[in-house]
């Protein structure tokens, strides 16, 4: 045997370079996904505090949800407009094929915000937010119809469990013999249906976002039109659907707490949207979809600590079913795309 047999075989430089390149790509992929998940978590955290500020206004001032969105959208519009100009974006440069999806995104976005914030007037913060997550169960069917995606058999099982969770949350067949309890149940039922409306419009928004992914628009462009849509649509929704006059806002006497709250919600929408958008630039959407459901237990904790709302046993069961079914769908999607 020759002397070379006593030494391990040495890989050539191209093989070593290829292995190092693969290891570096794996490291960068993990790093960027982690950065995206952190950014999305920050977005959830920021957005939840904006909702708490909204709840504070509703409980302490005679101001409707439509009025809050109307005034806060001016701050959001101003912030994103300045940002878009700094980024050198032409707000009118939108491809013809994507204009209809942008219009639909604006219309459904304004309805989603109006309905979700209106449901806070009838439900606890955590219950309204949890019911809105039920919209994710409609997305596979909308994706099948509008995008041609296949509906997985496993999804149907998870969707059924999630639907049971919504029934536990809404409790539409609850029988109340006491007159006062019956009136309270009717108010909660109304709020639940409003929150379901927000869930449905939210599901359509996800479809339009996917349609707009190939539009080449800078992330500041859509929020500019979205904020402008809120300024136009919220007074219309408030006045014609719920007979609420936009001029009833109680800012007489220069109530700076109320004014600062409007400004705070507007900046909150601006900052949280930036976090959400940047997150999708780094992380896999299927991985992000798992993280977003962290918002559910956070809302229950905030509702308990800040507003003292203790969830009912049926609501806890319903929320658990919705959370688990959503996580199962998201994890199944993530696993299938990874393979």
TrEMBL record:
Localization, UniProt: Membrane
Membrane-crossing residue ranges in chain numbering: 37-57, 63-82, 102-123, 129-147, 156-173, 189-209, 216-236, 256-278, 290-310, 316-334
Classification via SUPFAM superfamilies: Multidrug resistance efflux transporter EmrE
Membrane topology (UniProt): Multi-pass membrane protein
Entry keyword Transmembrane helix: yes
Keyword Nucleotidyltransferase: no
Residue intervals of the EamA domain: 35-170
Keywords: Membrane, Transmembrane, Transmembrane helix
GO cellular component, one term: membrane
Protein name: Membrane protein
Source organism (scientific name): Stylonychia lemnae (Ciliate)
Gene: Contig18009.g19143
């Amino acid at each position: 045997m020759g002397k070379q047999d006593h030494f391990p075989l040495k890989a050539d430089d191209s093989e070593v370079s290829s292995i190092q390149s693969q290891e570096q790509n794996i490291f960068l992929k993990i790093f960027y996904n982690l950065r995206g998940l952190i950014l999305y978590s920050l977005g959830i955290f920021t957005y939840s505090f904006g909702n708490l500020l909204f709840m504070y206004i509703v409980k302490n001032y005679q101001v409707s949800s439509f009025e809050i969105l109307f005034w806060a959208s001016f701050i959001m519009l101003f912030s994103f407009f300045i940002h878009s100009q700094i980024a050198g974006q032409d707000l009118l440069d939108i491809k013809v094929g994507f204009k209809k999806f942008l219009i639909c995104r604006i219309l459904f976005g304004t309805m989603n915000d109006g309905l979700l914030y209106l449901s806070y007037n009838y439900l606890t913060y955590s219950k309204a937010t949890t019911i809105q997550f039920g919209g994710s169960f409609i997305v596979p069917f909308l994706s099948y119809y509008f995008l041609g995606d296949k509906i997985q058999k496993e999804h149907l099982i998870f969707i059924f469990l999630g639907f049971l969770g919504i029934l536990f949350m809404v409790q539409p067949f609850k029988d109340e013999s006491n007159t006062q309890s019956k009136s309270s149940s009717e108010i909660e039922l109304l709020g639940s249906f409003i929150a379901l409306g927000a869930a449905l419009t939210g599901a359509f928004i996800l479809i339009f976002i996917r349609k707009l992914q190939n539009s080449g628009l800078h992330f500041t462009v859509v929020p500019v039109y979205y904020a402008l849509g809120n300024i136009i649509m919220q007074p219309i929704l408030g006045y014609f659907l719920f007979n609420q006059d936009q001029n009833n806002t109680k800012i007489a006497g220069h109530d700076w707490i109320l004014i600062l709250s409007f400004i705070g919600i507007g900046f909150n929408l601006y900052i949280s949207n930036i976090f959400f958008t940047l997150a999708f630039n780094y992380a896999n959407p299927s991985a992000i979809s798992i993280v977003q459901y962290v918002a559910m237990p956070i809302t229950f904790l905030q509702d308990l600590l800040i507003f003292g709302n203790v969830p009912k046993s049926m609501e806890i069961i319903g929320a658990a079913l919705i959370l688990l079914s959503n996580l199962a769908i998201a994890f199944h999607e993530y696993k299938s795309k990874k393979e």
